[in-house]
Amino acid sequence: MSVEIERDLPVRARDGTILRVDVYRPDNSGACPALLLRTPYSKDTPQTIGYAHPIWYARHGFLVVVGDTRGRFKSEGNFFPLLHEAQDTLDTLDWMRKLPGVRPDRLGMYGYSYSGWTQLLAATHDDSRLSAIAPAFCSAGLYELFFTNGVLNLAFAQSWTLQVALMEAQVRGDRSACAALQEALGDIPGIYSHLPVDEMTVLRTTGLSPFYFEVIQHPERADPYWDSLRAKDQRIAQLNVPTLHIGGWYDTFIAQSTETFQIASDRPNQHLLVGPWYHMPWAQQVGEIDFGEDARSEIDHIQNRWFEHWLQNEGDRPSDLPAVRLFVMGRNSWQDEDSWPPSRSRPLHLFLHSDGLANSSNGDGTLGRNPPTDEPEDIFVYDPNLPVPSLGGSSCCFPELAPMGPRDQRSIEVRNDVLIYTSEVLNSPIEVIGDIQIRLFVATTAATTDFTAKLVDVYPDGRAINIVDSIFRVGSIADQVLEVSETIGVTAIVFQEGHRIRLEISSSNFPAYERSLNSVGARDQFDSQVALQRVFHDGDRESSLILPTIN
Hints:
Blueprint: E1 3-12, E2 18-26, E3 32-39, H1 54-59, E4 63-68, H2 85-97, E5 102-112, H3 114-125, E6 132-136, H4 143-146, E7 147-148, E8 151-152, H5 154-172, H6 175-186, H7 188-193, H8 201-206, H9 211-215, H10 233-236, E9 243-250, H11 254-264, E10 270-278, E11 285-286, E12 289-290, H12 299-312, E13 324-328, E14 333-337, E15 345-353, E16 366-368, E17 378-382, E18 393-394, E19 404-405, H13 410-413, E20 419-422, E21 430-444, E22 448-458, E23 464-475, E24 482-495, E25 500-506, E26 531-536, E27 544-550
Parallel strand pairs: 3-4, 3-5, 5-6, 6-9, 9-10, 10-13
Antiparallel strand pairs: 1-2, 2-4, 7-8, 11-12, 13-14, 15-16, 15-27, 17-26, 18-19, 20-25, 21-24, 21-26, 21-27, 22-23, 22-25
């Protein structure tokens, strides 16, 4: 099937701003359904790093519209992430309904990351225009790009804003700004290490990505500031559009992808698909692990079948997709479930133990099923000027710029500021699917500090592969014992026979997350303080790792 391409067509938003789109029209005689993808990264390269080109979708019978979001590339206006996306997307859908040869009652949307946000925002503001969507690798709002539990996602936030700024400088033809931004991206470790984090001199001098300085002043998720930059939970819970939620276990937004699905799961025609991938690209090789042939990306074919069902057919019956389809790592195969999290999961408590020297892989820390009794606490020193380096993880967006994916952790596990708790060798597999939780009893000499947690799969050959991790900021009266009960991530993995389960505890994971300077109001290394950190595990303070196991 041949495809006709029309470029730079104008779409007038409700406030008069002109948004530019390209249209890929299949050469057939009848009216056809339409798909919309909106991106801030140029409609000329329409997410082809992850998806097939729009021509491929047009050859399967869809008219495809790809548009630059407001203030990006050929669209007018000023760019502020997500601020205008609900209205601009709805206005673009209204424009599409009037295109010749389009079935106005059969409109869908696809796209990952920012383009996933545009779908959720539009669908939760007014779903009457949409017949199906497929938001992939995204959260419901902007907060999760910048923060985790009030801690700045340093590598993601800074590398992303620099890349957005560089694209803008290129569009403007500003050669000096381009040179400065390319130099900054070429020295990204230096950018990450620079304090204070709100200085970002290259953004100040070029005047690009000014939103960075505003959003990082709002670290709390409950801050009303974020309300206009997210799809609200109550609206997600009322979602009427058939939705294929797509994510990856090492994606920076995976916890929010599963949360969005869970909130909407009581609505009809909600489906969740999660592979072993990080944010992009998607393939069987992720970081240092080859997950096998089953991990190859089939997202284009799956999306094509999804939209064929809801847009090309009458869509009067449910899709044949299972409610939940997960790639289970360790077993390296796909598995269908009835819900997220699976209704058959049961918590397994693994308690922290040591004789007071769990420091590093040379220490005596263990994980066991029996609660602790009379045991000394573990102690380590956290110096903000000597942070624990990030190895892999779920940052974004390119492995050469930010820590992503599964990596062997042994080179950092030799540090005494990393507490290591390891189970005995497993004599049978343990399948874990769902939210990974910790319950820690901690104390610090600092007025404010961070604690980090990382779940690790230890292979028979000694490799220690990260599964999930997180960070938590605490404020304290010096040496007061605090209970920290938090979710550190979501996953689906089988810890195989012969493997061991490990929990790492520290106070930094840099540059995935910013460093706490251990002092209220501190801005740079000259204001930082060294903190003495304690982790308790005794009869009164039973610190533990809680795994959702499948029997």
